[in-house]
Write a structure and sequence with these properties.
About 15% of the residues lie in helices and about 50% in strands. The chain is built from 1 helix and 8 strands.
């Protein structure tokens, strides 16, 4: 049950994070893996597009502390008037630079090879209140152009 709740929360939070990313601040400079230890997130410049509509996006992340709750990497793919959440990856927060890969099948509307945009979010779910319901905390957002091929 907790896994389903976490997956549902991740999908909802990816959708909620997308407008925040477009409000400003998501297009910061590319993360520098050599910078002092801090949470960071990057998006690879190329995404894979399968003949069956499978989309695979990837990048790198680093998070330092997940003691308050689980951390996820979510991603949203945008192309023209299409937008879809593409998976969600559970992050390992040990301060090391790690890779993330999110995959999803998107049938309608289907994406086409070419230019698109990815908005990725490193998000932590922290239990709040009497019931311990998870509340999102956005650690890092990163927007980047990608080429689907």
């Amino acid at each position: 049950m907790r896994v389903r709740l976490a997956l549902a929360a991740t999908a909802l939070l990816a959708a909620a994070a997308a407008p925040l990313a477009h409000a400003g601040g998501a297009d910061g400079p590319a993360a520098d893996p050599a910078a002092p230890l801090a949470d960071l997130l990057t998006v690879d410049p190329a995404g894979l597009l399968g003949a069956d509509g499978t989309v695979t996006l990837s990048g790198t992340y680093r998070c330092l502390d997940d003691s308050a709750g689980p951390v996820f990497v979510s991603s949203t793919l945008r192309q023209q008037d299409r937008s879809a959440g593409i998976g969600g990856t559970r992050a390992v927060c040990d301060g090391r630079l790690r890779t993330w890969t999110n995959t999803s099948v998107v049938k309608e509307p289907a994406y086409q090879p070419g230019e698109a945009r990815v908005d990725a979010t490193l998000m932590q779910l922290t239990p709040q209140g009497e019931l311990g319901l998870p509340v999102p905390g956005f650690l890092v957002t990163q927007g980047a152009p990608v080429t689907l091929g």
